[in-house]
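With this grant's support, we have paired protein sequences with backbone structure tokens. One protein thus recorded is set out beneath this paragraph:

_____
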Amino acid sequence: MPNIVNLAFDGVDGESLLMALRGLAVSTGSACNSASVDPSYVLKGIGVPHAQALASIRFSFGRFTRADDIDNAVVEIRRALDGLRRPASAAMHQREASH
């Protein structure tokens, strides 16, 4: 579908990112599998590695999607990724400092 894009964000769980992006209409898979916590069967079917499929978010665009909607989404995604990655990075630096 030309109006759907799937992006994977390494080091981030897709479900956690989904929850952090409450203001955006995004999903971790198709509507027909919305109750499943398994990665998308389509991603698995085309050979996407399991970990990458779990780190994926699906974005859908419509005829009323404007460029500024996408710009705002990018800002929200960056904010969410910083929040999700920062605790892991801080914990890693703390472990390194204690050794």
Notes: The chain has one domain: 4-98. The first strand starts at residue 4 and ends at 8.
